[in-house]
Amino acid sequence: MADHTRRAALLSIGLLLMVFAGGLYLSSRALLGRSPLPFGGGSVAVLPIGGVIYPDRSFGRDLVALGDRSEVKAFVLEIRSPGGSVGASQDLFGQVRRLREEDDRPVIAWIGDVGASGGYYVALGADSIFALPGSMTGSIGVIMQLPHAEELMKKVGIGIEVVKSGEYKDLGSVARSLSPGEREVLEELVNDVYEQFVQAVVENRDLSREEVLRVADGRVLSGKRAAEIGLVDGIATLQEAIDRAGSMAGLGENPSTVRPRERRVGLYDLVNGIAESKLRGWLPWLARPTTTGPQLLYLWR
Fold first, then answer.
1. What SS3 class is residue 159?
2. Is 117 a catalytic residue?
3. What gap in Å lies between CA 39 and CA 249, rounded to an integer?
4. Cα separation of 51 and 53, whole Å?
5. Which residues are 298's β-sheet partners?
């Protein structure tokens, strides 16, 4: 009798430990932003792309981390961005396109309030693009802004002596305005990068060059109008885009989702982020301490 009671007690303790361990496991996955039941058929990874796009390695790390997880069966890019620097936008586009070409899992881009210029460029890398009817998108074009303080410097008696190896080595100097030759050089550069944007739309949206050029003058479009033109595939909410990705991956509608882990934000990050956000809005060429000089921007201002 005593042995039977002892075995029953041990069994009860074992069951309690299993329940506790299972609860601890599920809680830890929830805190990490992971699917609570990875063995339940799979999940859709939702990757946010928000704010002004500048060089940042976090998206690539998140994409690799989520892509390596066996329970992830599809990807949704949650885009809420007016664009940003040309190089950063093209880099994100390249990462998304490489995922689309090298992986058989569906990749859907969804545009929220705004996914314009560089934000739209990134979306071109996905298998399909969806937007809200009132989303602001398009703005296919490139801009370069160069500040100069020539008159101010004259007033305060400041001058800059320049020794250079070629005519255009100090092109874009803050100390003076552009010469006609310098403007021509920069216009050629801007037009070259603009053509790259147009070609990316032609190649990824099954549109002719003539069709793209009709709206590739920097204008912003509603999601509804973009769908009519063919810049996006259709109208959908974020949940509908996730449902579509789930259905394409064989998970059905309302699939479980996973997101990248959120980095802890301290007081320094908060203050620095607010200051940088203001600089990006007012003076985009000063927005990043690591980036000096004029910048080419796929940015809807």
1. coil
2. yes
3. 15
4. 6
5. 84
Is 278 considered catalytic here?
no
Please tell me which residue in 154, 164, 169, 278 is annotated as part of the active site: 169
Per-residue tokens: 256: 């479980």
Task: Identify the CA nearest to 34 among candidates 255, 262, 258, 246.
Answer: 258
Residue 225's φ and ψ, nearest 5 degrees, are -70, -40
- Residue 268's CB is within 10 A of a number of other CB atoms, namely 8
Which residue carries 């074992």 as its tokens?
A: 14
Alpha-carbon gap, residue 203 to 86, rounded angstroms? 18
CB 223 within 8 A of CB 116: no
Burial class (CB in 10 A: 0-12, 13-18, 19+), 284: buried
Query: What digits encode the pLDDT tens for the residues 43-71?
Result: 999 999 999 999 888 999 999 999 999 99
Residue among 94, 97, 201, 91 nearest 141 (CA)? 201
Query: How far is it between the farthest Cα atoms of the chain?
Result: 103
What is the pLDDT at residue 32? 42
- DSSP H helices, 159-248, are 180-205, 209-213, 223-229, 238-248
End-to-end Cα spacing for the chain: 82
pLDDT of residue 173: 74
Determine the distance from the C-alpha atom of residue 246 to the mean position of all C-alpha atoms in its chain, rounded to a whole number.
21
- Candidates 298, 297, 294, 296; CA nearest to 147 is 294
Q: Which of 176, 52, 47, 57 is nearest to 107 (CA)?
A: 47
pTM of the model: 0.78
CATH number of the 32-299 domain: 3.90.226.10
Q: Closest by alpha carbon to 297, among 126, 82, 78?
A: 82
Which helix (H) or strand (E) segment holds residue 137: the answer is strand 136-138
Catalytic residue among 85, 117, 135, 256: 117
